[in-house]
């Protein structure tokens, strides 16, 4: 019903899942934690830059996260706003850089922001967490921040009251213009490549053998590829998950027989 399933997106042409998945959640706890993050990061940005710009930033970051996830995460199904939320973090970092001279306490601000980003990415290496959505959203938000979250460094003087021969300086610094141009180019290239690869059914893991570790690092404490055995007898389906030994039974329409191995996951 709208979750991000790479096989359905690529093989069945359901590209709309790239957009809808960011508005869905895997439960009350999932949506609660995401909304806490949104309140913590989004309120200040919306107060400073307005609803329209932050709404655009949020949506495009979620799209970028879903796009990267579709290219690399082929086994799991994911939902959630984590990609969009990481886009806000990426935009906060680029906003800090491009408006650096306007910040009074630069060290404290940058340290806190970097810690938040690192903690979020570290959580992403746990199983069942779509860290590719985090990374894609962060990269998208980082470049968008240079484009739409730029503060002027000085106010223009009205030419009608300026003395003769006086020339007003640009209210934006030259490095802000450079960041903006480079970011527009980078986003255009990345999104174009991403959609081309998606429609050509490219599997990113075929070209990057180690990239799967960005989303989950296997340890003795957990498996990155959890499996559940399913035994179906008549209309009774019994699932046993191998990673924790838990079992559950479901009643299905009669007449379905077989033995399967199921894989799955969700994003938090």
From TrEMBL:
It catalyses: Cleaves type-1 transmembrane domains using a catalytic dyad composed of serine and histidine that are contributed by different transmembrane domains. It is a multi-pass membrane protein. It is found in: Membrane. The chain crosses the membrane at residues 22-39, 51-73, 79-100, 107-126, 132-150, 178-199. The keyword Magnesium does not apply. PANTHER family: PEPTIDASE S54, RHOMBOID, RHOMBOID-LIKE SUPERFAMILY, RHOMBOID-RELATED. This is RHOMBOID-like protein.
